[in-house]
Amino acid sequence: MDLNEASLNAASTRAGESKIKHKISHDVFEPYPAALHGQFDSISMFYLLHCLPGNISTKSCVIRNAAQALTDDGTLYGATILGDGVVHNSFGQKLMRIYNQKGIFSNTKDSEEGLTHILSEHFVNVKTKVQGTVVMFSASGKK
Predict the structure, then answer these.
(1) pLDDT, tens digit, 9 for 90 and up, residues 79-120
(2) CA-CA distance, 128 to 78, in Å (whole number)?
(3) Which of 7, 8, 47, 70 is the most buried (most CB within 10 A)?
(4) Domains in the chain, please, with CATH?
(5) Which is it for strands 40-46 and 70-81: parallel, antiparallel or unpaired?
(6) Cα three-residue angle 58-64-67, rounded to 5 degrees
(7) How far, in Å, CA of 134 to CA of 112, rounded?
(8) What is the pLDDT of residue 65?
């Protein structure tokens, strides 16, 4: 799933068309089509959340929408770059400033605590681990 059709095509070409079951062009801020509800054992969100507009609280609907697409015992997992509560080196600080100014990133106030909060709104079991400036996460047990 991606909003950008070109990204979907590039990913399917790279992975091989035979390995791709579905290519879905969709805005993750919008509810997933009903046909996708309860259909996935796992959903990954690697390096997605920091690229989405808004603060971490406004990204809660993205987590909610993914949770609806998971089976009852499904797992949401991924990683995102934090802007708050971590120390970026000088090069990282420069990139963060430029990327946030250009709207490529929207994560200056994204924190591990904020991510844990929005995951906990939709899941019973939430795990996070900060490694450098990145937080890895998993969530299961839909509420």
Answers:
(1) 999 999 999 999 999 999 999 999 999 999 999 999 999 999
(2) 10
(3) 70
(4) 1-30 (no CATH), 40-142 (3.40.50.150)
(5) parallel
(6) 150
(7) 9
(8) 98
Strand-pairing partners, residue 42, are: 75
Q: What are phi and psi of 6, to 5 degrees?
A: -65, -40
Contact 82, 110 (CB under 8 A): yes
Least confident of 17-21, 26-30, 45-49, 65-69: 17-21
7-16, 33-42, 94-103: least confidently modelled range = 7-16
Note the pLDDT tens digit of each residue in 46-78: 999 999 999 999 999 999 999 999 999 999 999
Spatial separation of the C-alpha atoms in residues 122 and 143, rounded to whole Å: 5
Q: What is the b/e burial string over 78-109, where b = at least 16 CB atoms within 10 angstroms of the residue's CB?
A: bbbbbbeebebeeeeeeebeebeeeeebbbee
Q: Could you tell me if 68 and 96 are in contact, meaning their C-beta atoms sit under 8 angstroms apart?
A: no
For the record, the structure tokens of 42 come out as 């796992």
Q: Tell whether the model's pLDDT for residue 17 goes beyond 90.
A: no
DSSP-assigned letter for residue 34: G
Which of 33, 24, 31 is closest to 3 using CA atoms?
A: 24
